[in-house]
Design brief:
The complex is a heterodimer of chains A (551) and B (171).
Chain A lengths: L5 H22 L5 H9 L3 E3 L4 E6 L4 E3 H14 L3 E4 L4 E7 L4 H9 L17 E2 L13 H12 L14 E4 L13 E7 L5 E7 L11 E8 L3 H15 L10 H8 L1 H15 L8 H9 L14 H6 L3 H10 E3 L5 E6 L10 E3 H14 L3 E4 L5 E7 L3 H11 L13 E2 L14 H10 L3 H7 L4 E4 L13 E8 L2 E8 L11 E2 L4 E2 L3 H15 L7 H8 L2 H8 L3
Parallel strand pairs in A: 6-7, 7-8, 16-17, 17-18
Antiparallel strand pairs in A: 1-2, 2-5, 3-14, 4-5, 4-13, 8-9, 9-10, 11-12, 12-15, 14-15, 18-19, 19-20, 19-21
Helix pairs in contact in A: 1-2, 1-4, 3-4, 3-12, 6-8, 7-8, 12-13, 14-16, 16-18
Chain B lengths: L2 E3 L2 E3 L3 E3 L11 E5 H6 L1 H5 L5 E5 L17 E6 L6 H12 L5 E6 L6 H7 L3 E3 L3 H5 L1 H5 L16 H15 L1
Parallel strand pairs in B: 3-4, 4-5, 5-6, 6-7, 7-8
Antiparallel strand pairs in B: 1-2, 1-8
The chains are: A alpha+beta (551), B alpha/beta (171).
């Protein structure tokens, strides 16, 4: 965990006072709605279909139990008793009252949580691998660098009014759980031939109506230079990114229009002119940030404790363990994913009571630490293996032990037309129906890893382009239709899915997905061949035939 | 429209002269970049001070040869969501060493004062009287800054390192 010091706390409190003044001026009519809009967006406040929506940052997906309890308290006191975890390590509240927002922010500030830059055309919450610091084989803990970037991007005097939003993600593992290739800047931590830490820098990824996979702009930027290099990218973007058309304003369009070579040249020229600047991080500066992270005092524990051997006799426990428990870098410990995708539930939602209970479990079993992943699930990152059976029973009682992590019902979905003023179609009821269709855990186990991503409009908050199966809601003559893509992925081999054919009406979506899955089961050459690999091997044609032959 | 300079509301001594208009024989003027670049030497020889209104879509490089003789550079925020002039301001101050008046014009609200000041602006054409009056108070809103810019404010990181240094020195 990163421990905020007096300076971090002061800044957050100063931001709360500023926002309180902005709300006051809006309510007094001193600010027009147009002026206020930009200001509230810089602090995570959207106007949705029914109410204001409030998005709170969970930087690089790390929470303490105390912070999670504060999120629960806000859900209970200022909202309707629940919150929604998003695909970018944020939590959203959907029913907040404007006049109460400053108080909610002040309560969160007490535990070092803020909503700065969770929306608006600025540098958004820096995200990372939810297994950072605990995943085996990691180069080093990417949260150190995430925190360096979090600080650097917070209230940046030059880049708070960019052409469009700007998202940075960092990974330090071979398997990319942070989806860096669909970010404006993706950073892959690795070491050069001399064993020095640095980053492969990718730029120009993003979804929305013009999706692009990020391209490598520099294979290695030394850690000490990462801030100046990022700043050079942003300076080029701030000056030359398009501002005439909101749909062409993301950096991906600038990179695409200039071409990556020309864009890289512009950035390099800017970077060279910066030279050795105050942004260069010397060793002691990096160590200063590193020293503010604390790590658990792990015990020396056996690889296979008796408790785990005994519990293995229970097939329900075993099913959950095989699905939701991942190896930890320290022997005797595990990383446990808590599915927020119960059968029939809206993906990513948690009630205030669940949040409180998870905070208690984190204190008891995970050194008080919780993680939030972009798949909209939670994780307890340091669970002793001997505690797994007890933890499982507790999670099961809370409805947080659905053994569907990475399976067909572990669906990513945006709020869709149920909440969002941008949406063309509903997302949540589609997800709910799919979780009912595939409610049988034996079936979903047999299907294996399969990511379904649903967006209710072209803005792609549900990351439909990179779902193994992507579902995009569109509107046709006032009715909800859905385009289906297959073969997308968001990991280190990220690519966009391919459209299988004409959009289908709301009522047929679940049938079509069942058809696609059945086609896959018939087509895969062995049970271990994942859906996405079968699509890669065979292309979309056989799936298309299956879906449209009878329609 | 009130003008705030160095933290105080002052009378604007510069007169904006449109491109077709005749320049006054003396007195301080703000003129467009086109007019200035058409004959910079003649303009800089005037007895009054000369300032240039520089658009936010033109690189400041073209202005660099004249910076040490210019009395003011006015950068433009067509709307406050258009942040290009922040980059221009930092480049003028930090890369090109400009130390004359750097003026923020356009849609300037109190909510940008701290950002603008950190980017190097010292003069503000403020849209609303109430915002201009609140200038000093608004500038006190923040006491912690994460990024090093040319404004000289000490960053949080440097404060921490100093603290650490003094702690270890005291042991």
């Amino acid at each position: 965990m990163y421990a905020y010091d007096e300076l971090d706390r002061t800044l957050i409190n100063e931001r709360v006072s500023e926002f309180r003044d902005q709300v006051k001026r809006r309510l007094a009519g001193e600010l027009t709605e147009d002026e206020f809009k930009i200001l509230r967006l810089q602090n995570g406040v959207y106007l949705q279909l029914h109410a204001y929506m409030f998005r709170v940052a969970i930087p690089y997906g790390t929470l303490s139990s105390k912070q999670l309890r504060a999120l629960a308290r806000v859900a209970r006191r200022y909202d309707r008793g629940y919150g929604h975890f998003t695909t970018r390590q944020n939590i959203q509240y959907n029913w907040i009252k404007l006049a109460e927002l400053p108080d909610a922010l002040a309560e969160l500030a007490e535990v070092g949580i803020h909503a700065m830059q969770t929306s608006g055309n600025n540098m958004r919450n820096v995200t990372s691998d939810q297994w950072a610091g605990v995943a085996p084989g990691e180069v080093e803990d990417p949260r150190i660098w995430s925190e360096i970037l979090r600080q650097h991007t917070t209230l940046h005097p030059e880049f708070s009014f960019l052409p469009r939003k700007f998202k940075i993600a960092i990974t330090a593992s071979e398997h990319d759980r942070a989806a860096i290739k669909i970010h404006d800047i993706g950073l892959r931590l690795h070491k050069n031939a001399d064993g020095e830490t640095g980053f492969e820098v990718l730029v120009g990824g993003g979804l929305g109506r013009t999706p692009f996979i990020a391209k490598t702009i520099k294979p290695f930027v030394h850690g000490r230079d990462i801030l100046s290099y990022v700043e050079a990218i942003l300076r080029v973007y701030n000056q030359y990114g398009r501002r005439d058309n909101i749909y062409k304003a993301r950096i991906k369009i600038l990179v695409h229009e200039l071409g990556i070579e020309k864009f890289a040249k512009e950035v390099d020229e800017e970077w060279k002119q910066m030279g050795h600047s105050a942004l260069t991080l010397d060793h002691s500066a990096i160590e200063e940030v590193r020293s503010r992270f604390s790590y658990p005092a792990y015990e020396k524990l056996p690889h296979m404790p008796d408790e785990l051997k005994q519990a293995a006799a229970d097939p329900l426990f075993e099913r959950w363990r095989k699905n939701s428990v991942a190896p930890h870098k320290v022997q005797g410990y595990s990383i446990v994913t808590l599915s927020l995708k119960p059968v029939g539930g809206p993906p990513g939602d948690a009630t205030a009571d669940q949040m409180d209970a998870v905070a208690d479990l984190a204190d008891k079993y995970s050194f008080g630490e919780i993680r939030v992943g972009h798949e909209q699930n939670l994780a307890l990152p340091h669970v002793a293996k001997r505690d797994l059976p007890q933890l499982w029973r507790a999670l099961d009682r809370l409805g947080l032990a659905t053994p569907n992590v990475n399976l067909v019902t572990d669906i990513i979905a945006c709020p869709g037309l149920d909440y969002c003023s941008l949406a063309n179609a509903r997302s949540i009821p589609i997800a709910q129906e799919l979780t009912r269709r595939f409610a049988n855990h034996d079936t979903s186990d047999m299907i294996g890893r399969l990511h379904i991503n649903i967006s209710g409009c072209i803005n792609a908050c549900g990351h439909h382009h990179v779902g193994h199966i992507g579902i995009l809601g569109v509107e046709k003559n006032g009715e909800e239709f859905y385009q289906i893509t297959i073969g997308g992925r968001a990991d280190e081999n990220a690519q966009m899915g391919v459209l299988i054919g004409p959009a289908v009406p709301y009522a047929e979506v679940a049938d079509v997905i069942e058809d696609i899955v059945e086609a896959y089961l018939a087509l895969r050459d062995r049970p271990e061949e994942l859906f996405v690999d079968t699509v890669k091997r065979l292309g979309v044609e056989p799936f298309k035939e299956r879906v449209y032959a009878t329609r | 429209m009130p003008l705030v300079k160095n933290g105080r509301i002052i009378t604007d001594l510069f007169v904006r002269v449109a491109d077709g208009e005749e320049l006054p024989g003396n007195g301080d003027v703000l003129i467009s970049s086109e007019r200035f670049l058409a004959d910079p030497e003649a303009l800089l020889r005037r007895s009054g001070k000369t300032g240039v209104i520089w658009p936010n879509n033109r690189a400041v490089d073209d202005l660099v040869p004249y910076l040490d003789r210019l009395a003011a550079v006015a950068l433009v925020f067509p709307t406050f969501r258009d942040g290009r002039a922040y980059s221009q301001a930092r480049l003028l101050r930090e890369r090109h060493g400009y130390d004359g008046e750097l003026r923020a014009t356009g849609q300037v609200l109190r909510d940008q004062f701290v950002f603008m000041s950190r980017a190097g602006f010292d003069t503000f054409e403020v849209k609303k009287d109430a915002d201009a009056e609140a200038f000093a108070e608004t500038m006190k809103r923040y006491s912690v800054f994460y990024q090093p810019t040319g404004d000289g404010r000490v960053t949080a990181l440097n404060r921490r390192m100093q603290l650490r240094h003094s702690e270890s020195a005291g042991q």
